[in-house]
Amino acid sequence: MSRNIAILLAAGSGKRMGSNTPKQFLLLDSKTILEHTVGTFNSHPQIDEIAIVTPQEFLQQTELLTRAYKKVRKILIGGKERSDSSMVAIANYPNDDDNLLIHDAVRPLVTAQTITACIEQLRTFQAVEVAIPTIDTIVQADPSQPFVQAVLDRTQLWNVQTPQGFRRKIIHQAYRLAQADPDFRATDDAGVVLRYCPEVPIGIVEGERTNIKITHPMDLVLAEQILASRK
Ligand code: C5P
C-alpha cells in the first residue's frame, strides 16, 4: 500500500525577509512558522510520515522544535537551491509506491482540507499541484529593462502554491533527467515534471488564498490576522 509522506522544505535562508534568522524559524503567534506547518501535517490522519529538510546550522534547533511531533521521522540537510533540497528528500524515500507531498515550510496556513484534496487527486493523477486562479493582470517584462512586452491572458493563469504531490516514481524520474541538463533551473517541483516528463498530466487542486508564502515582513502581519480569524 502506498504511504503519504510529507516533505517540508525548510532549508532556505530567507534573504527577502531582511532577517538573519530564516523565516521558517520566526515566531508567528507564539510558535515558529515551522511548528505551525509541521503541526498541520502531523495531525492529518492520512499523512503517514514527515521529513523536514533544514539548513545544516539549524539541524539541532529543528530537532528540538519538532520532537513532539510523532510523525517526524527524518530531518535532512538541504542544498543550495530549493530543487537541491527536494532532491535530498526524494533520494531518502526509495519506495516507488510512496506518494510524496512536497510543501514549503514557509506556508504555515495550509489547511487539512487542501492536504486531503491533494491526496484524493493523487488517486487519479501521478502529479498534482495546488494553485489559485490569478486575480491580477500579469504582464511580461525583462527585469533589467522593465517595459511591458506582453499582457498575458488572465483567464488561463494560476498562482502556484504547495503542497505539490507526486507518485515517487514520477518525481524521481523527472529529477533524474533534470540532473543531466546543464541548463536546469526550477522554482517548484511540478515544473520539473512538466519539463522532463511532459507526458505526465499534472492535476490542479484549487487552493485557498490564505495559504500564503511568508516571504516579506508584511506577510507575517497578514498571517497573524488570518490565524486570529480562525480562532
Ligand atoms: O525560496 P523560496 O521562497 O522558493 O522557498 C520556498 C521553500 O523552500 C521555503 O520553505 C524554503 O525554506 C525552502 N528552501 C529549501 N532549500 C533551499 C531554498 C529554499 O528548502 N535551498
Explained architecture:
- With 231 residues, the chain is α/β, with parallel strands linked by helices.
- The protein has a single domain, classed as Alpha-Beta Complex (Spore Coat Polysaccharide Biosynthesis Protein SpsA, Chain A).
- The chain has seven helices and eleven strands.
- The strands form three sheets. A seven-stranded mixed β-sheet has the order 5-4-1-6-10-7-11, sandwiched between helices. Strands 2-3 form a two-stranded antiparallel ribbon.
- A hairpin with a 2-residue loop joins β2 (27-28) and β3.
- The radius of gyration is 17 Å and the shape is globular.
- 38% of the residues are buried.
- Bound molecules: cytidine-5'-monophosphate.
- Residues 9-12, 24, 53, 78-82, 84-85, 104-106, 187, 213, 215 line the site of cytidine-5'-monophosphate.
Q: Report the sheet-strand fraction.
A: 25-35%
Oligomer, anyone? single chain
Q: What can be said about the biggest beta sheet?
A: 7 strands, mixed
Helix/sheet category: alpha/beta
Strand order of the largest sheet: 5-4-1-6-10-7-11
Number of helices: 7
Succession of helices and strands: EEEHEHEHEHEEEEHHEH
Q: Which architecture does the CATH hierarchy give at level 2? A: Alpha-Beta Complex
CATH classification, class level: Alpha Beta
Give the overall silhouette.
Answer: globular
The named CATH superfamily:
Spore Coat Polysaccharide Biosynthesis Protein SpsA, Chain A
Kindly state the mean pLDDT as a whole number?
96
Q: What is the gyration radius calculated from CA atoms?
A: 17 Å
The CATH topology: Spore Coat Polysaccharide Biosynthesis Protein SpsA, Chain A
Question: Helix fraction?
Answer: 25-40%
